[in-house]
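Morning F.,

Quick status update on the modeling queue. The single chain you submitted on Monday has been processed. Sequence for confirmation:
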Amino acid sequence: MEKQRNYGIDLARAVAITLVLAVHSFLYNGYYNEPLEGIGMAVSTILRMAFISAVPLFLILTGYLCVGRKWSKSYYRKLLPVLLTYLLAAAACLAFRILWLKEDISLLGMIRRVLDFSAAPYGWYVEMYIGLFLLMPFLNLVWNALEEQGKKVLLITLLVMTALPPLVNLYQQILPDWWTGIYPLTYYALGAWLREHPVTAKRRWLLLGWIAAAAAAGMVQYAVQQHFFPGQP
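Structure tokens below.
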């Protein structure tokens, strides 16, 4: 029987791609060079908080779609298209730097940039995805071996470890934040949880919830900036 295409997943991907383009536009519209003052900057801060959910959405989709993957000898072949895409992008970016921007980059320098994923802008995402890809089958073993309560506790633990410190330490170190770097695992687990526990709310309420969360986070950042660092970008 032919599998039915899940257009909801396609829509989520399209939204994530749009959000990526939207959040990167803030690098060129002067937002990061202006102090957070006035209604315009408050609205911009809220929009940025909404757009910045692009990468988390991709990671949640990965957990949702890949929680059933198992390890096999042929598993690593699926990584080849990602590596080839990165190498092509890296080659194009290095060629642009050397031929157009006239940067003096040695052969050793080019190799180093390719290996540390700095050859192409946003190569960090490819670097992160490769690590997540290598761990997926083993993460899935742990996830699928847990009972319902264990999965819930694991997800809550990951959320506390990765989401609470940035919220509390917005402009001053209060909680230890070493483990915040494992946020890809948190979003992956969240996607796996949503696979097993689909959200049944109507779309308009989900959209309003997302807007409300972005507005709340944006206003918190704006208020803290105004209180601790008035007049600074």
